[in-house]
UniProtKB/TrEMBL annotation, chains A, B, C, D:
This is Nucleotide pyrophosphohydrolase. It comes from Salinibacillus aidingensis. Coiled coil: none annotated. PANTHER family: DCTP PYROPHOSPHATASE 1 (PTHR46523). It comes from the Bacteria. InterPro entries: dCTP_Pyrophosphatase (IPR052555), DCTPP (IPR025984). It holds the Pfam family MazG-like.
Length: 116, 116, 116, 116
């Protein structure tokens, strides 16, 4: 499979197959999946504890990739349980964010939209 | 665009275009992106605070989709900054998880691999 | 020492002594301490992943106490670095929360103040 | 009340009075309190997003104190629900951490105990 052509749906199917092979769908209520997603995001962040980005990447590159992957995998599984199309919600949210952060106001500043 | 055929790379490009239109790449070091990803995962989880899954979905469905989308968007932008292929790391991590959780041992239990 | 009489300042001193014995004050900038506090709160939460409160307590009681203690320890060390009086900020915040959640409106409901 | 003499138990009582005045004990199961603690730790961390410690303190000092206080308040309320003595678990955990990080090995390094 050419990786350039992998669709989001292909990944959702790979993640849910992993889940269903283990009969884990029964544990996957949205609340516990949201907890798990938050825990994986923290495990990703742990790689940067006490260090700047460069040193973190130097020491923990492989684990950073793996924890980012786990965040993705839980996101894919949560989208399946919610029965929502990830492509659609991502593209819709990018449009909403674009309205919250109009280019002319947001360009080059890290301020929150409430402070623009 | 047929949503069934949206590739992960299409989403990465949409997210990085949003970022670059605002000249935000300068702020996007991996450490701060990992912080942001963790914050968005918490905002998702906040929808489930004090409630079970059913009541959370009833009251906060739209916000749940939006916060899940934000988690995805930061994941896409982090993968761009790390210059790593999301498809590859997700598929590799699913394989690694499959070895950590062999079907015959993990089926139907929510135990961690360290307890199997 | 009678535990009933332990002051918050006693605990701050115990935590900062632990830190200074190891010459760790140099790493303790507020941003990395806030990251660490968030990571410890996640480790606490991990004890409740996929389980209700009763089963979590049954299986993980000791670890729950230890992770809660780690959250406290980082809070104590952060208050030292910020040079802020924990007693004062806690009592002030309780007063502010009391204004946000007036008894007559907030009694018996889990709603956020924005929804009262 | 002389703030130097405020005990941890005084703070627990202030936090649980706030809770009981609003009849909120019914919502305070340990799992949802652990979620809330994690959410407050994230709100604290949000003050440091995209910024170094100095700029964060300059722009968000008051909010940093308030979110740290909220972390404390939830810790106090969780200790009450768990019926555990915060002084005891903090002092015990400091002793355990001291064994994990012996002074002669841990001095001046930010490494985890697994790497010492």
């Amino acid at each position: 499979m050419n990786k350039q052509n992998v669709t989001v749906n292909d990944l959702v199917q790979a993640a849910t197959k992993f889940r269903d092979d283990r009969d884990w769908r029964q544990f996957h209520n949205p609340k516990d999946l949201a907890i798990s997603l938050s825990l994986e995001a923290s495990e990703l962040l742990e790689n940067f504890q006490w260090k700047d980005s460069a040193k973190s990447m130097e020491e923990n590159e492989e684990n950073i990739y793996e924890e980012l992957a786990d965040v993705l995998i839980y996101s894919l599984m949560l989208s399946d349980v919610l029965d929502v199309d990830l492509n659609e919600i991502v593209l819709n949210k990018l449009e909403k964010n674009a309205r919250k952060y109009p280019v002319e106001k947001a360009r080059g500043t890290e301020k929150k939209y409430t402070e623009l």
